[in-house]
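Open question from group meeting: does this chain pack into something compact, or does most of it stay loose? Before anyone orders reagents, we agreed to write out a predicted structure and look at it together. Recording both the input and the output here so the notebook holds the full record.
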Amino acid sequence: MRSLPKRWIQQYEPWHMDALSMRWHEEDTFKLVDRDLDKILKKTNKGCSFTGFAEDKIIGCAGILPLWDGVGHAWVVMGKDYKKHRIWIHKQVKSMFFKIAVGMEFKRVQANVQADFYDALRWIEALGFTCESTLKRYGPDGKDHYMYVRFFDDS
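Structure tokens returned:
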């Protein structure tokens, strides 16, 4: 019988992103982003962000950053080896997003996804988000993105 790897979730820390071996989509995007500013934004709201570990590696980081009262912006950055843990990480992200949204009293959580990142588009829909609009030339590289949204109230 094969034993399962030890996996856990913990609060996000800025060094996690540096230690993460990113997929090429994320790697290309982060070459164009001010990583120090990105770390500051995520660190100041670190109670809303988390990191998934397996054995001694980081699988990925995710969270929801508050934009204003009732609205948050979801983000996810997965490592190259995430597929080995895709079912576990899907359950963790879905559960944590729900807990954060309810705990922070978000009515709306939104996320933008690069229009040609097909795996991410399929996954965000599996997380319960729906496409709301197209953001033309939105990315740091000028690529189109889609704005996805999930509502956490009864309306």
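Observations to bring back to the group:
The chain has one domain: 7-151.
The first helix runs from residue 14 to 19.
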